[in-house]
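hey so i finally got around to running the thing on that chain from the lab meeting. sorry it took forever, my laptop kept dying and i had to restart like 3 times. anyway pasting the input first so we r on the same page abt which one it is
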Amino acid sequence: MLIFRIVFLLVYLDHTAHAASIPISITNGSIVFGDTIDDPTLDLSAATTDISGNNNTGDTFALNVATRFNPVFLNCASGCPSGQQPISGVIVNQLSRGTVTFNNNTGPICFINQLLLNGVISIPSTTAELVTVSGPFSLSGHIELPTPEFLGSVDLSGTGFATIPLRQAQPGLFVPAGPQSFDFPGSPASTIPEPSSWLLVGSCLTVLTGVAWRRLRRK
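ok and heres what got predicted. didnt touch it at all, straight out
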């Protein structure tokens, strides 16, 4: 009986250790809904995901897969009018083809648990048949990692800009008109100059000050 309890405790502790999901911030890549790929098992129309990111403890993550998807982008059943409209993209419990990488350990992944994207676009008032609009979105997701090197899961988050092509199906009503891309812009470049840049700026200011002083003396 004691041995059974010890084994049960060890199994429980192992499960608990792997149950905690690791947070990952997605900063690069894109998720494209409606890509055409050469894979009949995905009906030739798929969501292709090629994203990467990390967290503040040094963990790195990358996902490169194709999956089926729930084609719900505009939350208007028969078309959306002009103005601000919510958008969404959903991949939930779908078979996938591709790889996942966690801390430089890469392995195949055949199932995506959850990727949810929600945002807002502004549809212009126009008579044009085709328009392309963009707007901000946010990502939330959960992925179980199947690689032998790491048995666990990650919780994904991130923000970016969606690009949505639309067709005016009838006057004033717009529907999706092609692949829709949710792009993560990457980490923003620092606007703080490096020390060498500060020296260059200081040199320029010194020269400009000298020129201005000489002109004032001549006057």
